[in-house]
TrEMBL record:
Name of the protein: Leucine-rich repeat-containing N-terminal plant-type domain-containing protein
Gene3D superfamilies assigned to the protein according to its UniProt record, in alphabetical order: Ribonuclease Inhibitor (3.80.10.10)
Lineage of source species: Eukaryota, Viridiplantae, Streptophyta, Embryophyta, Tracheophyta
UniProt keyword Repeat, yes or no: yes
Keyword Signal: yes
Domain Leucine-rich repeat-containing N-terminal plant-type: 25-65
Length: 79
């Protein structure tokens, strides 16, 4: 498993373990921290991730539930 895939898995496990009362802004903060940790995004895969939005609903490669909470990241490593 590549470093990016491993890191995205760890982020998702962290998000799932956090309290259900965590507000959506915390999901955005966690995803933005993840994005800052990416050293290269040569295909601008994370370009739609806009921290000014209240929820990551509609961000590419992010799946949210009906309440707008992050339930899955689809991040893969290309060579």
């Amino acid at each position: 498993m590549g470093r990016l895939a491993l890191f995205s898995t760890m982020i998702m496990l962290l998000l799932r373990c956090l309290s259900g009362v965590m507000i959506q802004a915390s999901d955005v903060s966690a995803l933005m921290a993840f994005k800052r940790g990416i050293s290269r995004d040569i295909h601008n895969i994370l370009g739609s991730w806009d921290p000014s939005l209240a929820t990551p609903l509609g961000w590419f490669h992010v799946t949210c539930d009906a309440a707008g909470r992050v339930i899955r990241l689809f991040v893969f490593q290309t060579r």
